[in-house]
Amino acid sequence: MQDSFRSVSLTTQDRYAEAAVLYREVFGYQHPDYGLNPRLLGALASNGGSVVGVLDESDRLVAFAYGFCGTDKRGFYHYSQSAVVAAGHQGRGLGRQLKYAQREVALGSGMTRMRWTYDPFQIRNGHFNFDVLGARGRWFAPDMYGPGTDRVVVEWDLTDKPNPVPDHELTELVMPAESTDKDRHEVRAAFEELFAKGLAAVSCRRLPDGNAVYYFGPVDDV
What we know:
Residues 23-116 form the N-acetyltransferase domain. This protein has 222 residues and is α+β, with helices and mostly antiparallel strands.
């Protein structure tokens, strides 16, 4: 029998507590400094933030995401801080359900852009962000959470406006299958150089040899 999952907005303290537990389990956090406060989730949900989850057929929370409003010189956007899927349920499309649930929250608040970050060496995440959702890698955040935590800042146009990039305009960046400190330094320099040229990451794919390739193309910064 096919699994049945449904996306919901989380609205009760019991659900916020359940989400906090799931967050710890997925990331393996033990130290209290890395926990997630259920009261914070309640405050976000009550003030325009996204606190969404996916429930299985037993009404158990198996995926969860939260975010909040951000702003820059271009206006307001929704920032997706974190998204987690329980072990055993990954690879079933729940990550996409979470992002689209957050999209509905953002659109309901009048925002048409969403941002989040990820490690550029997480090729599966890059493929999901660009080739599945159609988002774009726009900026680079070196050492975002401390040394060795470089992140790509992703922006997703929530209006579903087509933004194709002709193949002949793409620039390739090959990524090694396993990263060393030297690899990370070189990848940081390459991403920063390509972004400085006004390009955006538009695709990320695994190669037959185990390496991966990013494709960059021009985009309008509107």
